[in-house]
Amino acid sequence: IACIGSTIAAKKTAFVHVFFNIVTGIIVFLLIPVLTILMNKLTLIAAIEEPVIVLAIFHTAVKLFGIIIFLPFIETLATFTEKLIPEKNNVLTKYLDETVAQFPAVAMEASYRSVVEITIFVLNAFPKEINSQNKGELNLEMAKLALEDIRKFFKKIPTMPVNSEEFQRYLAIVHSTDHLEQIIELLQEEYKAEIVCCSETLKEPRYILSEEIKIALGWLESKKVIEAPAIIEELTKSLYNERKIGREKVLLDIAQGNLLPEKGNETILGLLWLDSLGYHLARIIKHLNNSRPIG
């Protein structure tokens, strides 16, 4: 009853719990004569006479018996449960639950985890876009829908004191979602992606951004590299310098007649595109670092 109106995960847990108890109960009921004999022998061998202790041992034995029965069928049970109670919401926002929106601390944790999930999903699209000439169709629709879900969730969070720690976390998360939206828009500029992945001139800035992505993903997925946000910030500065120096070189080549204006313009657009991606990624990591749970 308690799981009514709760999350999909809670409903799945409740179903497995009830299913486990029912099946185990039926099997134990059918085996009561055998189990009674075994329990009598066990209590005699262990010299246990206290009824409460005997009952506790029987209860523990039943649970262990159930675990042994279900152990070989865990994957089958998981698949059956998934089909019976499918995920109805975007998997990227699985942590969002309207029932916790009224509790700022819990709501911030759910929002933080959701933004991390979306960021990881989006970052996994990066390498294909900047290095591969044979790209499949880039599908970021799930990420866009997830951002919409987060904004709807934000509306349900009550107003917090501006000076409170939770408000500062909230502000950082809001900033992260804005930069995520900017990245998604940039990744959808397919003609710029084509310019970048095919240009030998943009090899170095491509490499810098790839490193930034690699470190960001490692930090988001494990949080083990404490200095990752600072490293990403330095890489972003390097990317900016590449864009600035590269632009000056391209303009000089055009002026000297060593490069066609059209080609030069494409290169400048590519540099700006890579620099923008790196900038927004660095901002996301910075804000997520400021909004992550303490401890």
The averaged pLDDT comes out at 84
Strand content: under 5%
Query: Can you tell me the overall shape?
Result: elongated
Task: List the helices and strands in order.
Answer: HHHHHHHHHHHH
C-alpha Rg (nearest Å): 28 Å
Structural class: mainly alpha
Q: Give the proportion of residues in helices.
A: over 70%
Count of helical stretches: 12
Structural features:
0% strand; 75% helix; mainly alpha
Can you offer a commentary on this structure?
With 295 residues, the chain is mainly alpha-helical. 75% of the residues lie in helices and 0% in strands. It has helices at 8-30, 32-46, 51-70, 74-84, 104-123, 126-131, 141-155, 165-187, 190-198, 203-222, 228-255, 261-291. Residues 133-137 have low confidence and may be disordered.
Summarize the topology:
Layout: H1 8-30, H2 32-46, H3 51-70, H4 74-84, H5 104-123, H6 126-131, H7 141-155, H8 165-187, H9 190-198, H10 203-222, H11 228-255, H12 261-291
Helix pairs in contact: 1-3, 5-7, 5-8, 5-10, 7-8, 8-12, 9-12, 10-11, 10-12, 11-12
